[in-house]
Design brief:
Blueprint (H helix, E strand, L loop, with lengths): L32 H11 L5 E10 L3 E11 L2 E9 L7 E7 L2 E5 L5 H4 L4 E4 L25 H4 L10 E8 L2 E10 L1 H9 L4 H16 L6 E8 L4 E8 L3 H4 L6 E10 L13 E3 L2 H5 L1
Parallel strand pairs: 6-12
Antiparallel strand pairs: 1-2, 1-11, 2-3, 3-4, 4-5, 5-6, 7-8, 8-9, 9-10, 10-11
Helix pairs in contact: 4-5
């Protein structure tokens, strides 16, 4: 990958976060798990910015953790992350601004930076469809998707159930669990009662495909008292392509720390940025 030569420890990943009411109680008897999850998916459309945290494991990279902020208009993201199993000092800071990506941190080979703090590369894309994301190999594919869209995956489950009422990051939530398959998402899309629901399910299917996992995904979703996703966890075995490279299972937990709070993501100073070219890659 393009950044292989500039990362000391091999590169990689992590993200997570969301906020909500502190007074989420047990679901009223008339609200089914499917209704609760669908409502949280509808409410996800109101999220314009997000501060979140990711912890867990991804195929090939192993343990990762990160904290990030993002905005949807314009689409931008800033993340600080570590990959504990990559060896050495694996701290990275990644920013996506104006369709370009910037990478800094102790995991970047300082000899390649020529006295500067950042590498820049473009075009780059994060948080879009599975085929459109491009982090030049820095981020694992499992976290290139928008976590707001990923939180809606459970709407395609056919075995949803409520687990318990639990506290997540100081917020009372209702905890749901189910399994998701591409077939289930397709069936839900075909049975959608309106165009808006159909579009959400198309996006959910795209996010599912972008995870690079086998066709059965186990998902937990914690919903707060404002009917927003507060946290979700996804677990699955790698698909055939990932398994062939020795990748382990996927197990990521994404916690929404704050939603719709001001987010400012800036381009690093030009004078402190080195453009990534074919030169560093081949040297």
């Amino acid at each position: 990958m393009v950044f292989a030569a500039v990362l000391l420890a091999g590169g990689t990943v992590a993200c997570g976060g969301s906020a909500g009411s502190d007074s989420a109680n047990e679901n009223p008897p008339e609200v089914t798990p499917a209704t609760a999850v669908a409502k949280a998916a509808v409410n996800s459309e109101d999220i314009r910015s997000l501060h979140y945290r990711i912890t867990g494991t991804v195929p090939e990279k192993g343990r990762v953790e990160a904290e990030a902020s993002m905005s949807t208009d314009p689409l931008a993201m800033s993340m600080k992350m570590t990959a504990a199993d990559q060896g050495g000092d694996s701290r990275l800071e990644v920013r996506f601004v104006d369709e370009a990506m910037y990478v800094g941190g102790s995991a970047v080979d300082s000899e390649k930076l020529d006295g500067k703090s950042w590498f820049g590369a473009g075009p780059a894309a994060w948080g879009r469809g599975a085929a459109d994301n491009d982090s030049h190999g820095v981020l694992p594919r499992q976290i290139e998707g928008n976590p707001v869209a990923q939180s809606t995956l459970l709407t395609g489950s056919e075995d949803l159930r409520m687990i318990a009422t639990e506290t997540v990051d100081g917020t009372r939530t209702r905890h749901y669990r189910g399994t998701v398959t591409s077939g289930g998402l397709l069936a839900a899309r075909e049975g959608a009662v309106d165009e808006a629901t159909r579009e959400r399910l198309i996006e959910s299917l795209d996010q599912f495909m972008g995870l690079g996992v086998s066709d059965t995904l186990t998902m937990d979703l914690w919903i707060d008292g404002d009917d927003h996703a507060k946290q979700f966890r996804v677990r699955a075995e790698p698909d055939d392509e990932q398994a062939g490279t020795g990748g382990g299972p996927l197990d990521l937990t994404i916690t929404f720390l704050d939603i719709n709070q001001p987010v400012s993501i800036k381009t690093p100073p030009t004078e402190d940025t080195t453009a990534l070219t074919d030169g560093p890659q081949g040297s």
